[in-house]
Amino acid sequence: MARRLGTAGYYVLLPNLYYRAGRDSVFGPDVLEKGSAEQARMRAIRTRMTIPPVMDDVGAMLGFIDRQDAASQGPVGAHGYCMSGPYALAATARYPDRIAAAASFYGTWLINDAEESPHLSLGKVEGELYVGCAEHDDLAPLPMVEELRGLFRRAGTTGEIELYPGVHHGFAFPQRWCYDKPAAERHWERLIALYRRRLG
Predict the structure, then answer these.
(1) Which residues of 27-158 form beta strands (DSSP E)?
(2) One CATH from 3.40.50.1820, 3.40.50.150, 3.90.1570.10, 3.90.320.10 for 2-199
(3) pLDDT digits (tens, 9 = 90+) for 23-69
């Protein structure tokens, strides 16, 4: 997926969000099986990955990008899937002078009681946000999506929340059982259009 975005002409940085558990953290094939030991191990690491330290990581990544000759100077974009969706949105509020566009695809719990939860900082966002949600998603239930729509409107946030009908959490990943090619292709169209508008 990083390569595909690169073919559209963007410099892409793909971080290992699990690095604090060990740079070589690897999960077995049953990590996606509900109730498996590997899924429990992954979730134990995931629950410690709160937004503030990840935002510090984003700052380090921005510094890294600035030192790369291959990357053009200026605004950058951020997007994430599932657990990293909230990180992408929160980063636009933490770094409004750098991150001009952010997208979340089936981001989990975009409204929560965590420090720097994305919904708390919508008024600080200066760029454009895109939130793509799956109709069937226990981690981003429809009532939460509707609540987020209301928060967007009240904050005057530039952007869009779009519901992808008939699909499930994870629909954009070709290796997942729920992969939906038309929805996945639409998500690429929406993401690249967002980046073209805001990044060039």
Answers:
(1) 76-81, 99-105, 128-136
(2) 3.40.50.1820
(3) 767 888 888 788 898 888 888 877 778 889 999 999 999 999 999 99
